[in-house]
Specification:
InterPro entries: Cyt_c-like_dom (IPR009056), Cyt_c-like_dom_sf (IPR036909), Cytochrome_c_Peroxidase/MauG (IPR051395), DHOR (IPR010538). The longest helix is centred in the N-terminal third of the chain and has 15 residues. 25% of the residues lie in helices and 15% in strands. It is α+β, with helices and mostly antiparallel strands. The structure holds heme C (HEC) (2 copies). The site of one heme C has 25 residues, from helix 3, helix 7 and helix 9.
């Protein structure tokens, strides 16, 4: 087992007590936190085990920062309406009606892919559908994202349908597991019908907001060093960075399922996911599309920006100041066995246990530095690098044929696993992977192919007891 260093274990043990008194009604762990063990994010760790575990400010958020955090939190969950002005601006076409509609409790809303077989039917979907032509170009009448919802009087751009293909597999010890591979089709195109042979379509369920500030504060030189040395030919593993240019700056992409963004994409979230215009994206997303030209949206005014720059900065502050839940049940022998199994199966070669943040912390959109996030030892369980995850399993693997920056169709950013064990409590489901196809932990692991193949097979060949222990360990994260 690795030896871990924590910077402020004692300070934090003091804080547990305070959190417990303040948050009446929230489940706070009453076990003693072993020194230097469970603190996932140094001074930004919380000890909640309730549905609010992802949605709690770090203890260093006080005074004017607390006001701005609360403003940001409220805006994040604010259900936009179709009117103009404050709180309005939704659509005309959109995918979700608030950040929180997709990221419930700062987590992952239950996928309508599973509950409704694709697009949601009640004015809401919990996913993003990216579409392009086979040659990578965008469709004039649709743009990059399929907006499968629309305000009253306007047609959604189209509707997503998913069909699941099931196959049963066997572990060497005879226990079976089933995988479900999705096939996506889009129906009810509002304008040109796009032939399936011309279409690339990829679906993403939301990511958990655990550790957004820490992610933005990571010393990217550490990530680049990992890419340079993350080369384990004996296990077929070699990660690489996704270099991205955004707003005139080139850097190591950290956020998004393909590490395709440099920041937390607040402006893009408002514009592209909700149709809420802002200083960075002043035009409606459907500008220039057939529906606008045909005049069916006459009467709507587009002159005014729907959300102010200051409001977006508050949302950015809110996300970057969220605390990370501490690990739980760390003294349970099964969990400890599972942790050994995690290393034995080489999961840690991609799901890197320990990283460090740069001394000055993270920088918000408005240039404010969150120095509290500086010089912290963190446990994200990710290298934030791209890995080829294979195209073989059930003839498709995790390959979505969609290119994002340097990331090819079969390449994905290692998903940080911190907080994953609480997803069921926070969001009421255990759907995992970029499109939510895995229904539980075992399926998520068994979809690992490509660079993850050797690691997956090490898990597959374990005894049932050890596989169960590894899953118990994931639940403790
Ligand atoms: C329609 C659903 C939907 C809405 C609405 C939405 N998101 Fe997301 N969000 C997603 C999906 C899906 C992803 C993953 C995208 C990807 O990787 O391509 C994501 C990713 C993110 C990420 C990256 C997280 C990470 O771990 O890298 C951030 C940050 C984020 N969203 C913030 C926001 C904010 C802020 C808003 C509101 C302004 C918002 N989102 C609105 C669905 C949504
Ligand atoms: C080669 C690098 C690599 C290795 C080795 C690896 N993973 Fe992953 N893991 C990834 C990537 C990349 C993803 C994201 C794939 C996607 O979303 O399609 C992922 C996703 C996951 C997820 C789903 C996370 C979520 O919230 O959706 C779990 C759980 C997981 N891995 C557990 C494990 C375990 C356990 C092992 C060891 C048996 C392991 N991984 C080994 C790279 C790796």
């Amino acid at each position: 087992m690795q030896i871990r260093k924590y910077i402020y274990p004692l300070v934090l043990s003091g804080l547990i007590v305070c959190t417990a008194c303040e948050d009446e009604g929230l489940d706070v762990l009453d076990v003693e936190v072993p020194e230097g063990f469970a603190l996932s994010a140094g001074t930004s760790t919380n000890f909640l085990t309730s549905s609010k575990a992802y949605d709690q400010e770090s203890s260093w958020i006080t005074g004017k920062y607390l006001n701005r955090f609360n403003e940001g939190d409220a805006l994040y969950d604010d259900v936009r309406t179709s009117s103009n002005g404050q709180g309005g601006g939704l659509g005309p076409v959109y995918a979700g009606y608030s950040c929180g509609s997709c990221h419930l409790n700062a987590g992952r809303t239950r996928p309508t892919l599973w509950t409704e077989g694709g697009s949601g039917s009640s004015g809401f979907s919990s996913m993003l559908v990216y579409i392009t032509r086979r040659n990578g170009a965008f469709f004039r009448n649709y743009g990059r994202v399929l907006h499968d919802q629309a305000i009253y009087g306007v047609e959604p751009e189209g509707k997503l349908k998913v069909e699941w293909r099931y196959e049963t597999f066997e572990f060497p010890d005879g226990e079976t597991y089933e995988l479900a591979a999705p096939t996506y089709t889009i129906t009810e195109w509002y304008a040109d019908s796009i032939r399936p042979e011309d279409l690339f379509c990829t679906v993403r369920i939301p990511l958990r907001h655990v550790g957004m500030g820490q992610m933005m504060a990571i010393d990217t030189r550490e990530i680049e060093a990992l890419a340079a040395k993350s080369n384990y030919p004996e296990y077929g593993i070699s990660g690489r960075c996704n270099y991205i240019t955004e707003k005139g700056v080139t850097g190591v992409g950290l956020s998004g399922n393909k590490a395709q963004h440099l920041d937390l994409t607040v402006e893009l979230g408002f514009s592209s996911d909700m149709g809420v215009t802002n200083s960075r994206y002043p035009e409606e997303i459907c500008e220039g599309q057939a529906q606008v030209d045909q005049g069916s949206m006459m009467g709507l005014s587009y002159d005014q920006l729907d959300v102010s720059t200051e409001e977006m900065e508050d949302v950015d502050l809110y996300m970057q100041s969220l605390s990370v839940p501490a690990r739980r049940n760390v003294n349970d022998p099964q969990v400890q066995r599972g942790e050994q199994m995690f290393y034995q199966a080489k999961c840690h070669l991609c799901h890197t246990v320990t990283l460090h943040t740069r001394p000055r912390g993270s920088t918000l959109l408005n240039g404010t530095q969150l120095t509290w996030l500086g010089s912290q030892t963190i446990h994200p369980y990710s290298d934030f690098l791209l890995h080829d995850m294979g195209s073989e399993i059930m003839d498709v693997g995790l390959n979505d044929n969609y290119v994002s920056g340097l990331a090819r169709g079969n390449e994905w950013r290692t998903t940080p696993l911190w907080g994953i064990g609480l997803q069921e409590v926070v969001n009421g489901h255990t759907y995992f992977l970029h499109d939510g196809r895995a229904r539980n932990f075992v399926e998520a692991i068994m979809w690992h192919g490509g660079e993850g193949e050797a690691s997956k097979n090490l898990f597959k060949n374990m005894s049932k007891e050890d596989r169960d222990a590894l899953v118990a360990f994931l639940r403790s994260l």
